[in-house]
Specification:
- This protein has a single domain, classed as Bromo adjacent homology (BAH) domain (SH3 type barrels), CATH 2.30.30.490.
- The chain is globular and about 55 Å long.
- It has about 250 residues and is an alpha+beta fold.
- The strands form two sheets. Strands 2, 3, 6, 7, 8, 9, 10, 11, 12 and 13 form a ten-stranded mixed sheet that branches.
- It is built from five helices and 13 strands.
- The two termini are about 30 Å apart.
- This is AT-rich interaction domain 5B.
- InterPro entries: ARID/SWI1_ChromRemod (IPR051232), BAH_sf (IPR043151).
- GO terms for molecular function: transcription cis-regulatory region binding.
- It comes from Macaca fascicularis.
């Protein structure tokens, strides 16, 4: 694979008219191969002058006639980076979603991807849970597949997970996660319930049993979203291509 090339990862997951849908794609970021799959959260900057925001990859497809590789993502901004600004009603871990999903060619999306998120200070830092116990009998792999299937309408991500593993990537590299407000509340409640528990039982299964969110990632930043806003300038971005909306 050439350093600047893009390629689909895994088998197609659907067909509709002239569109072929996929689960993941591979690209290069700062010279290193990386895979993004449906449901992934990652940092982006839509233009050099825009603030860093979070993208959630929701759809990937190819338009067979034009051979265009396309993506649909949901964007999340900090309240202070929206027209209304931050107010006393906003939580410290809150982000606000752009009301319309953004459709961007993959070649443009990868230009948006931002690798330096050291200045991003917001979000609850998830407490680590022990994943060693999940290594026995393939439990960790089963849990990852379960998460992917529940996040993505039951799609089989086995081939994508294998490709990520071959690159040295896995779900532990996730840096940010955006939850719904009810999920976030359950997660905070779960953290309080386990804060005095011995580390030997802080496993994913224990967290799930308490109604929380089982997090395999190494200390990701947890945020939540409960509101949307109309972005005033996003429609002017030359990378947006709604004409390919499926």
């Amino acid at each position: 694979m050439e350093p600047n090339s893009l390629q689909w990862v895994g088998s197609p997951c659907g067909l509709h008219g002239p569109y072929i849908f996929y689960k993941a794609f591979q690209f290069h970021l700062e010279g290193k191969p990386r895979i993004l799959s449906l449901g992934d959260f990652f940092f982006v900057r839509c233009t050099p002058k825009d603030p860093i925001c979070i993208a959630e990859l929701q759809l990937l497809w190819e338009e067979r006639t034009s051979r265009q590789l396309l993506s649909s993502s949901k964007l999340y901004f900090l309240p202070e980076d929206t027209p209304q600004g931050r107010n006393s009603d906003h939580g410290e871990d809150e982000v606000i979603a752009v009301s319309e999903k953004v459709i961007v060619k993959l070649e443009d999306l990868v230009k948006w991807v931002h690798s330096d998120f050291s200045k991003w200070r917001c979000g609850l830092h998830a407490g680590p849970v022990k994943t060693e116990a999940l290594g026995r009998n393939g439990q960790k792999e089963a849990l990852l597949k379960y998460r992917q299937s529940t996040l993505n309408s039951g799609l089989n991500f086995k081939d994508v997970l294998k490709e990520k593993a071959d690159l040295g990537e896995d779900e532990e590299e996730t840096n940010v996660i955006v939850l719904s407000y009810p999920q976030y509340c359950r997660y905070r409640s779960m953290l309080k319930r386990i804060q005095d528990k011995p580390s030997s039982i802080l496993t994913d299964q224990f967290a799930l049993a308490l109604g929380g969110i089982a997090v395999v990632s190494r200390n990701p930043q947890i945020l939540y979203c409960r509101d949307t806003f109309d972005h005033p300038t996003l429609i002017e971005n030359e990378s947006i291509c709604d004409e390919f909306a499926s």
